[in-house]
Amino acid sequence: MKVLVVNAGSSSIKYQVVDMTDESVLAVGLVDRVGIPGTTLEHKPIGKDKVLIKKDLPDHTAGMKLVLEVLVNEEYGCIKSMDEIGAVGHRVVHGGEEFAESVVIDDRVKKVIKDCFDIAPLHNPPNMMGIEACQELMPNVKHVAVFDTAFHQTMEPSNFLYALPYEVYEKFRVRRYGFHGTSHFYVSHRAADMLGKPFDQCKIITLHLGNGASMAAIKDGKVIDTTMGFTPLEGLVMGTRSGDIDPAIVFFLMEKLGLSTAEANNYFNKKSGMLGLSGVSNDLRDILEAAASGNQRAQIALDVYYNRVKGYIGNYMAKLNGCDCLVFTAGVGENAIDIRENICKDLDYLGIKMDVEKNKVRGKEVDVAAADSKIKIFVIPTNEELVIARDTYRLSK
Ligand code: ADP
User: Fold this and answer.
1) Which of 75, 181, 210, 318 has CB 3.0 to 4.6 Å from 151, enough for a Cys bridge?
2) Annotated catalytic residue: which of 19, 106, 118, 148?
3) Calpha distance 388→319 (Å, rounded)
4) Ligand 1 lined by 330 (C-beta under 6 Å)
5) Is 200 a catalytic residue?
6) Closest Cα partner for 81 from 34, 17, 129?
7) Confidence of residue 122 (pLDDT cuts 50, 70, 90)
8) What CA–CA distance (Å, rounded) separates 123 from 177?
9) 29-56 average pLDDT score
């Protein structure tokens, strides 16, 4: 059986076809600028050349329709007929407090995803558009929702509550949820395998460092804390998000800069973080390059980034009472040698010692800790699509 994995954003649809007999990927693709003039579909059948199709598409249904046509295309498709697709797995960002695991989508599940529009206005509505488009075009297969928040649902109130009047939790569900759960789930399980220990007996700190970034503390198979909160804005310094700040800065800058609520939201999510601080870029490659050629602001931005991550390592070591391994993943974590090295520098008191030679790797599963490090330091490429495909396959049987 083959599973179609779909990740629908506001103007994009990412997809992958996975053959569950051996979990091989048959094709990956991206429809970009859905509903905006200049729509493109980039399709990569594994082992064949990439195909680029330019065709304006008004909405997600039209986008998905084109994807399905491409999948069965004689020349560059990856399946003979749509009957080969046994189920569709959808990435859904917010499952609120309802879902601690993946579920087959029915009317009740759709209602919960819709109920979360309020607390995930940028993510859940496009995710829902993807679901509805796929259900319309593939009404006879099961559709499964895999939530970014689900893995973090094991957090206790002592870690998920904010010190705000309790009513706002009860009335408006203001609490910490955490995101990137599928990635933290995947790499922490791989880490347990690499440790050679049962997952439910490990203490693991995962560092998903991409353009968006978050960390999680996992104890005995359960997330006990994570850096993102009510929204993905909290926690680490990210490409364009500030991460933790004094909330009073929001009121202060709204007044000083005359920002509306929507503008302030945009300011802290899109104009801050490494982009705002360095003035160079949101891409850490550009910032590393600028710092290496003497740009002081770029260097300061990197130092702020490292310190924030180090602070959370200390925080999580305290909450876990020690740990077996750190895990670096996502674009930065998998590829940025210097960044991993700087984060792990001067943490030997905590039992973290990197072998800087071993650390000179990109995108491979490897332990880069020194032989005498108490704590292992793993680099593990993430694979959220595989988790979605596996859950979808399991639930569709
Ligand atoms: P997201 O899924 O959050 O968009 P990714 O996990 O794909 O992000 O990570 C993308 C980011 O990874 C880029 O913005 C870039 O900063 C970073 N990145 C990729 N390769 C490197 C590298 N070699 N050195 C530093 N940063 C890198």
Assistant:
1) 181
2) 148
3) 29
4) yes
5) no
6) 17
7) confident
8) 14
9) 95
